[in-house]
Design goal:
By secondary structure, this protein is an alpha/beta fold. It folds into three domains: 1-133, HUPs (Rossmann fold, 3-Layer(aba) Sandwich), CATH 3.40.50; 134-171 and 207-273, Alpha Horseshoe (Serine Threonine Protein Phosphatase 5, Tetratricopeptide repeat), CATH 1.25.40; 278-436, Orthogonal Bundle (DNA Cyclobutane Dipyrimidine Photolyase, subunit A, domain 3). The protein has 18 helices and five strands. Strands 3-2-1-4-5 form a five-stranded parallel beta sheet, with helices on both faces. The longest helix is centred in the first third of the chain and has 18 residues, at 54-71. The mean pLDDT is 95. Pfam families: DNA_photolyase, FAD_binding_7.
């Protein structure tokens, strides 16, 4: 191809699909041919601990699928393994770039990365255009009447519903404009081994939310039932459109699943407006808690060897599959932060390492909810009892029997690493002491 032909670039990140992609749509409608681009970000990948991290396999498969679709239009996906700023410096030398299009990301690192790239492009008189794509409402679209962000979910949800109009659920018809792709043949997408990873043998979930949304409120709390959508990893990497999910959920008589999507947006906006919450308590007084941080007990929690069957089942499911049922996520998080008095950030980092559907905003929000340090109005003395939760949500022990088969033989199953009654009283005492200090 002629390197002097002016082009636009669309930068894929958390939006790994061609259909109903906001930034991609606007790029294709621009006056220049569009080069699709993806960066395997060294800044992120070099921090991952596991060579067989299944998320990389998921991303790689999605990119191969995108490239296959692009080839139908005599185009292809240019994918590189590099630090973003270095990748863009090289790209500026290779192509005559008129504009760069991408979709907005709200995480602290992403905001810093995009600002640096924007500054680089501005120095070269290149427009950097970002679009809303991974949420229905972003930044300042759902705020209080005084313009300040909501910090409590229910009023945020109510305003979200008030603002919702069919326009916001309308898909972007990218298919009409794919003829505007740049005709070129990119080098092969870097193999997993080239970027330091191995193909994972984890079974990655298919999208199946249509099967559960009509009855979600009745099934979602029972881990032995196939009552959840497993859509999280697809939303995380954008292989499914949030507009399609929300439109389908909005048609359902049961709005419980749609409310969960709203929780996701609420936490995304909390992280955007309060980026310190990635590493610090939303309510600063909770940073005064003196955690015990017993490494032996933390290791038992990680392995699913605490002697509490529902906690252990959840951790083993996570370790084996990269997924954990949401009800069980709350129970395991409460157990770590309240029963064991281990810093919620330890658990958040472990989930970040293991969860296929890991999103910083939702994960941090969920962990702070469990620890009592987040936006939730409930006081710190909400402490889940693992045994009563087991009786209520896995009464036939189906989930526990699947993941903790030795529970049937008490001689093989470990004794509880702590007494829950003692742990609860200790937690209340230590939290109260810290918060009153």
């Amino acid at each position: 191809m002629d390197k002097n032909i002016p082009i636009s670039i669309f930068w894929f990140r958390r939006d790994l699909r061609l259909n109903d992609n906001a930034g991609f749509y606007h790029a294709l409608k621009s006056s220049n041919a569009v080069l699709p681009f993806f960066i395997f970000d060294k800044n992120i990948l070099e921090k991952l601990e596991d060579a067989n991290d299944a998320r990389l396999t998921f991303i790689h498969n999605a990119l191969v699928d995108i490239d296959r679709q692009l080839q139908k239009y005599k185009s292809s996906l240019l994918a590189v393994y590099d630090k973003p700023l270095d990748a863009w410096v090289k790209l500026l030398k290779q192509y005559k770039i008129k504009a760069v299009y991408t979709n907005q990301d709200y995480e602290p690192y992403a905001k810093e990365r995009d600002e640096a790239v924007k500054n680089l492009l501005t120095d070269h008189h290149i427009e950097f255009k970002t679009f809303k794509d991974q949420v229905i409402f972003d930044t300042n679209e759902v705020v209080k009447d005084d313009g300040k962000p909501y910090t409590v979910y229910t009023p945020y949800k109510n305003k979200w519903y008030q603002k919702l109009k069919p326009f916001y659920l309308k898909s972007y018809q990218t298919e009409k404009y794919l003829v505007n792709l740049l005709k070129f043949k990119a080098p092969a997408i870097p193999a997993l081994k080239e970027i330091g990873f191995e193909k994972s043998d984890l079974q990655l979930p298919d999208i199946n939310y249509q099967r559960v949304i009509d009855n979600y409120s009745n099934t979602r709390n029972y881990p032995a039932v196939k009552g959840t959508s497993h859509v999280g990893v697809h939303l995380r990497f954008g292989t499914v459109s949030i507009r399609q999910c929300a439109a389908d959920a909005n048609k359902a008589p049961d709005k419980t699943w749609l409310n969960e999507l709203i929780w996701r947006e609420f936490y995304s906006m909390i992280l955007y407006h309060f980026p310190h919450t990635a590493n610090h308590a939303f309510r600063p007084e909770y940073d005064r808690i003196e955690w015990i941080n017993d490494e032996v007990q933390f290791d038992a929690w990680c392995k699913g060897e605490t002697g509490f069957p529902l906690v252990d089942a959840g951790m083993r499911e996570l370790n084996a599959t990269g997924f954990m049922h949401n009800r069980v996520r709350m129970i395991t998080a409460s157990f770590l932060s309240k029963d064991l008095l281990i810093d919620w950030r330890w658990g958040e980092r472990y989930f970040a390492r293991k969860l296929l559907d890991y999103e910083m905003a939702s994960n941090v929000g969920g962990w702070q909810w469990a620890a009592g340090s987040g936006t939730d109005a409930a006081p710190y003395f909400r402490i889940f009892n693992p045994d009563s939760q087991l009786k209520r949500f896995d009464p036939k022990m189906e989930y526990v029997k699947k993941w903790v088969p030795e529970y049937a033989d008490f001689s093989k199953y470990p004794k509880p690493i702590i007494d829950h009654k003692f742990a609860r009283e200790r937690c209340l005492k230590d939290f109260k002491k810290a918060l009153n200090r």
